[in-house]
Each structure stands twice: as structure tokens, then as C-alpha cells.
Design a protein that fits this description.
Blueprint (H helix, E strand, L loop, with lengths): L7 H31 L8 H15 L5 H13 L6 H14 L2
Length: 101
């Protein structure tokens, strides 16, 4: 940008001060951001959030397959002692049909 006239030096000086002020302001902004980052922040969880967090932790630590139950059922099948209660199966099937509608 070219500036002409007898106040040329004054305008340049004013622009220079404005530029320095902007740079200083930017420096202050970055400093304040750093102080926010360095500051201690706390998060307060509700009781429900804590319960959900505990449930997730328990679920992640629980195996997908209950090996004891599977071993017991295999043993019953091998010995010919495993019996299916058809009434229980029918009730569960009907309950599933009713609840899924």
C-alpha cells in the first residue's frame, strides 16, 4: 500500500503501532489459551453416569460364554440326562412373538 502526502510518516507509524498491537493481542490470546490448557479442570459425573460406567466395566470383564454352564449341559447330553421341557419352550416362543409385535 502506498501512502502519499505530508503525513506519510505519521500514517506509517500508526499502521506500525496497529500491527504491533495486533501481534501483542495474538500473543496474549495464545498465552490465555495455554493457561486454560494448563489449568486444572474437573468433571463431575452424575450417579447414573457412574452406574453406567460400572456396568460397562463389568460387562467388558465378563466372558461371552459361560463355560461352566456349557460343560454342565454337554455332560448331561453325553449321559442322556438332558431333557427339554416342551411347555417351557412353547411359553418362551409365545412370549417372544407377543413382545416383538
Amino acid at each position: 500500500m502506498k501512502i502519499y502526502g505530508h503525513k506519510q510518516g505519521l500514517v506509517k507509524e500508526t499502521k506500525l503501532k496497529e500491527t504491533k498491537n495486533k501481534e501483542t493481542a495474538k500473543g496474549k490470546d495464545s498465552t490465555s489459551k495455554e493457561s486454560k490448557v494448563k489449568g486444572v479442570e474437573t468433571v463431575v459425573l452424575s450417579e447414573r453416569a457412574k452406574d453406567i460406567q460400572k456396568a460397562k466395566e463389568i460387562a467388558s470383564n465378563t466372558p461371552d460364554v459361560r463355560t461352566e454352564k456349557v460343560a454342565e449341559l454337554k455332560d448331561q447330553i453325553e449321559k442322556g440326562k438332558y431333557r427339554v421341557n416342551s411347555k417351557d419352550i412353547a411359553e418362551k416362543m409365545l412370549k417372544d412373538i407377543v413382545t416383538n409385535q
